Amino acid sequence: MLYHSTQDQCLRAANLFYSPAANSVMKIFMTCLLFLIYSSPVLPSASAQEPALVEALRLSSAGNQSAALAIFDDLLKKNPDHLLARLGRAYARSWQGRQKEAQEDFAVVLQKSPSHAEAQIGMAYSLAWSGKGRAAREAFSRAEKISPRQIDPAKARRMLRELPAFFEVSLWGGATAIAGEDGLGIRLAELALWPAQNFRVWAKYDNALSLDNSVLLREGKDVAAISLGSLVNWKKHYTTRVEVGRRELPNDIAQTLVQLEQVFYFRGGAALKIGGFTGPREDDRGERLFYTGFNFPLTPKFRVEPVYFYAKTTGVENKENRFLLAGEYQFTNGWRLNAGAAFGKSNTELPSTTGNLWAGHLMLTAPLGAWHWAYFLFRHEDLAADNISVISGGIRFRVER
After folding, report:
1. pTM (2 decimals)?
2. 3-class SS at 44?
3. In the prediction, which pLDDT does 29 show?
4. Is 192 buried (19+), middle (13-18) or exposed (0-12) by CB count in 10 A?
5. Strand 253-265 with 271-280, pairing
6. Domains, in order of start, for the chain
7. Which of 142, 149, 104 is CA-nearest to residue 14?
């Protein structure tokens, strides 16, 4: 009874080793694996108690995967059927990001021992980290059948939903009330493709300005923007996003839209975001925007993000400074609630549009089935010239890789 209880606790901890707290949980997992080696009545104790194997596991738990792999390789050279050494090498390779090689080792263990729960769990996570959502889902299902106590289905589903899809379709619509005018319609439509796990490209139709500007609403003008964009994740340390588009404003004035964003990730799950936007127009006017924010976890389920915005309209003296404080809570069932409040000041050439501003938003993100997402957003802004309220909803359909 003690063995099974401790085994379950160890493996529940092991299921977390791909989280932002990977280093600390890795040590827990390897400590538990050492316990299993010496305690399990089903593992081959003669080979398990080899000092070299124990040293390799210790090195791996300390994060020294290269040294650990050298020992695992030596053990397997002497005995290719050494399943514990192969399992240890599989995990070490996976932690190094060598997922293809890790999966080869997991597959060998599973071929010789199809009901090996630890190998099946490792295979599932490795497939997930390779971006192979469909195969990972099937591997988790097999692991749950082998040993239900060692798998948290809800956690597995949450992780799989966050994986890059092969293809995505997003659609947003909503209603706007501003300065006595009401707008209703499609706000955004996007088609996106992930050619690789860390590379996303998209084409987007953005009609938000047509619905959120009182003059355009009153005149019934459509100034939707069409844009193309790409996102690249650089070895899980950086993310770069670029988007370029164009729209036609009233009086046949064309505007070019360029957005750039860079994200830097740090230990502990924190991220620094720096971005900007420029929108030069044919009439020598245009908009510029700069922003920077820092996102960090206060608890495992609650994150906070303060963001500073600076906006300027070229050709006239229009400037705006805004500070936003947002927080997001993630529920156990995968739902997310994001809320924020902003305040700032606008300075323009007209006294009627100069003054303080404040804004707030509430956004709910909900999973639809195993793979899709639904969104609800309420936003209100109290500006010097106008008040604007927006209620919108969206849906994202995804096709697994």
Report:
1. 0.77
2. coil
3. 52
4. buried
5. antiparallel
6. 2-156 (1.25.40.10), 167-399 (2.40.160.40)
7. 149
